């Protein structure tokens, strides 16, 4: 009997459950889709390195999923609490009719079970579809063909999802039983007459809070924009200042908003604006803390989306510049050349088409010498023109290239060589961001202090690319000098032995059809067989860098999308439920409006207007926070190369509009339905 009663309740109140159902379905969908990450390898033609990268990314996603599960558990309990509040009077009537709390709890458990089963099935189906889309996205990120594509269903991910949400539903049932046991019958019957109240009536206090909010937020913005990568060392202070500024902003907003609108009589008395604005003012007063939390979560969601997508764009845009050769070998053995060291190993070099040695020097700052560092360049231009390459790298040394070796590099790339006088130097860029930095230096300086002497800066038309296979920031900007300058003024080493300030690389171009990974493996095998003492050997192959770079982008992109969805979903649910929980309380106000002449169309418009304002307030401030945060993160990401903001911004905006808009429409629909109940 109780099961049938619960089933009838769910059918009758399905629209009441819409937000709850959407929340459960979205949660299950995300949890399944991102936990089925590793199953994509079944249809993707991956190399061993790419498979390892996918395994690492899958481990990160799995660990992250347990954190997400906790967040979703709180979110689902929060949404469920709304349903309990909505039905307090109904439960009170059941008690008057003689039904015990135990039996009411049993009905609630049945209802939770039914909604859980339906949302679980729907969410798994949606997650299955989303996971196929993620497979296509992964193929694009790894630049892989989809010749073997087929629909893959992950049974392991399904079991993890069912187990996780079964635990959450059990917690929800226990929570319902506990909450119901706390209330007396009279409390349930009078539930709709109680309102949360938190009001600041003092105009002076609201002004003080507003000024404090502006000081904290603007100060936080300025510090974050100037700090660059150093902001991470002061992250706790940044978070505390930003959170307090956000809280004070919303605490003062209710006092300012109404008074500001009231100053415009034409606007204030137009249609139902007076009523709507007072409703919004009351909502903000009652939900100051939750509005602040929602704003911060929206910031995290937008930031996660944008940063994850931005890293993907940046790494992919610069990957070709970081792999100018098939293989770059770094070999040290008794000051031998690469050829002599390979001869000692007996390595097979038959696949090599051409090669040349590229020496890179690093002039570290010492106790008595300034060194040749990124800070050296930063001193040459106005502070307003400083970009993230120089700010973030700081005391890191510039890469110093001997002219002869750099000309060998140009010849290997089929480009015209350059010439320099002993007192001249040229700046070279490994990516677009570094090119912008050295362009600024050329615009503001004619000379540079390097290797303990003044060198004239001359500009040459050089390719924007790395000189070796590498992604390290130490080769982002290079300084080309005449060979004699290095011989006469050896770079200052960070270590006691100056040889550590020099890196000897051998850039290798293989014959057509030769596999760079197989070539490197043959050398490693020869090294393993001979085990020469004191030999150091390391190789960066184009395939390996491509795989590791794309593996990095896949991980960051998926983590960003995953967290972005979770934070955005949580924010939308909290906003929607706060509005719906007050709809029943506001029914009597709309009945009065109807009696004094406000027609249904005008009331409907006022509901839309009220909910739109409430939804837009935390989003508007979150967008301002995000613009500052994303700009600061771009300076950090710029270490990897020049960032492209357009596509990540468009994709982030589209996702936010889609989810936010969906919950906005669902909230408006639910709100009006509650108002129209007889």
From TrEMBL:
Gene Ontology cellular component list: plasma membrane
What are the ABC3 transporter permease C-terminal domain coordinates in residue numbering? Answer: 64-177
Intracellular or extracellular location(s): Cell membrane
What's any GO biological process attached to this entry? transmembrane transport
Query: Predominant location of this chain?
Result: membrane
Q: What membrane topology was assigned to this protein in its record?
A: Multi-pass membrane protein
Q: Which residues cross the membrane?
A: 17-37, 57-79, 107-131, 151-181, 202-223, 235-261, 282-305, 556-577, 611-633, 645-666
Keywords tagged on the record = Cell membrane, Membrane, Transmembrane, Transmembrane helix, Transport
Q: Which family does it belong to?
A: Belongs to the ABC-4 integral membrane protein family.
Its name, as the record gives it, is Putative ABC transport system permease protein
């Amino acid at each position: 009997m109780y099961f049938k009663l619960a089933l009838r309740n769910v059918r009758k109140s399905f629209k009441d459950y819409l937000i709850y159902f959407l929340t459960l379905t979205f949660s299950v969908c995300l949890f399944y889709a991102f936990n089925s990450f590793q199953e994509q390898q079944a249809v993707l033609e991956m190399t061993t390195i790419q498979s390892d990268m996918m395994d690492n990314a899958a481990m990160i996603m799995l660990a992250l999923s347990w954190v997400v599960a906790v967040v979703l558990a709180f979110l689902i309990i929060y949404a469920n609490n709304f349903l309990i509040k909505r039905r307090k009077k109904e439960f009170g009537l059941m008690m008057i009719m003689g039904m015990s709390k135990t039996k009411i709890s049993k009905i609630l458990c049945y209802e939770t079970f039914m909604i859980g089963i339906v949302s679980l099935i729907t969410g798994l189906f949606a997650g299955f579809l989303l996971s196929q889309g993620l497979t296509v996205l992964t193929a694009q990120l790894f630049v892989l063909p989809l010749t073997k594509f087929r629909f893959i269903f992950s049974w392991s991910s399904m079991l993890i999802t069912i187990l996780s949400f079964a635990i959450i539903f059990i917690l929800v049932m226990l929570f319902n039983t506990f909450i119901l046991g706390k209330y007396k019958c009279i409390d349930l019957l009078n539930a709709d007459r109680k309102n949360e109240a938190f009001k600041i009536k003092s105009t002076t206090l609201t002004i003080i809070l507003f000024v404090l909010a502006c000081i904290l937020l603007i100060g936080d913005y300025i510090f974050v924009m100037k700090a660059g990568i150093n902001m991470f060392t002061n992250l706790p202070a940044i978070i505390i200042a930003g959170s307090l500024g956000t809280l004070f902003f919303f605490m003062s907003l209710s006092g300012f908003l109404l008074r500001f609108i009231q100053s415009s009589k034409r606007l204030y008395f137009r249609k139902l604006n007076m009523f709507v604005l007072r409703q919004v003012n009351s909502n903000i007063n009652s939900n100051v803390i939750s509005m602040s939390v929602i704003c911060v979560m929206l910031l995290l969601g937008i930031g996660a989306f944008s940063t994850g997508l931005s890293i993907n764009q940046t790494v992919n845009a610069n990957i070709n510049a970081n792999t100018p050769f098939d293989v770059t070998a770094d070999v040290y053995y008794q000051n031998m050349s690469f050829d002599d060291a390979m001869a000692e190993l007996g390595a097979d070099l038959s696949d090599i088409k051409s090669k040349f040695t590229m020496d890179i020097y690093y002039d570290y700052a010492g106790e008595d010498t300034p060194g040749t560092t990124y800070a050296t360049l930063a001193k040459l231009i106005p502070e307003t023109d400083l970009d993230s390459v120089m700010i973030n790298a700081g005391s890191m040394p510039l890469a110093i290239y001997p002219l002869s070796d750099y000309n060998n590099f140009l010849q290997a790339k089929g480009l015209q060589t350059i010439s320099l006088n002993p007192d001249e130097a040229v700046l070279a860029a490994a990516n677009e961001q570094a090119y912008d930095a050295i362009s600024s230096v050329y615009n503001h300086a004619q000379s540079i202090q390097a290797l303990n002497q003044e060198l004239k800066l001359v500009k040459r038309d050089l390719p924007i690319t790395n000189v070796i296979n590498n992604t390290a920031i130490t080769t982002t900007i290079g300084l080309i000098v005449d060979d004699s300058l290095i011989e006469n003024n050896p770079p200052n080493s960070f270590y006691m032995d100056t040889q550590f300030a020099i890196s000897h690389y051998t850039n290798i171009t293989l014959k057509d059809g030769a596999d760079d990974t197989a070539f490197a493996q043959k050398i490693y095998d020869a090294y393993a067989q001979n085990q020469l003492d004191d030999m150091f050997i390391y190789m960066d192959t184009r395939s390996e860098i491509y795989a590791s770079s794309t593996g990095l982008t896949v991980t960051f992109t998926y983590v960003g999308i995953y967290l972005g969805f979770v934070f955005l979903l949580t924010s939308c649910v909290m906003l929607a439920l706060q509005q719906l929980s007050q709809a029943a309380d506001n029914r009597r106000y709309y009945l009065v409006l109807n009696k004094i002449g406000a027609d249904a169309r005008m009331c409907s418009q006022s509901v839309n207007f009220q909910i739109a304002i409430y939804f837009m307030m935390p989003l508007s401030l979150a967008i301002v926070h995000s613009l500052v945060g994303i700009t600061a993160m771009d300076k950090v990401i710029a270490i990897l190369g020049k960032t492209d903001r357009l596509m990540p911004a468009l994709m982030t905006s589209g996702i936010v509009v889609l989810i936010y808009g969906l919950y906005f429409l669902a909230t408006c629909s639910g709100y009006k339905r509650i108002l129209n109940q007889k």
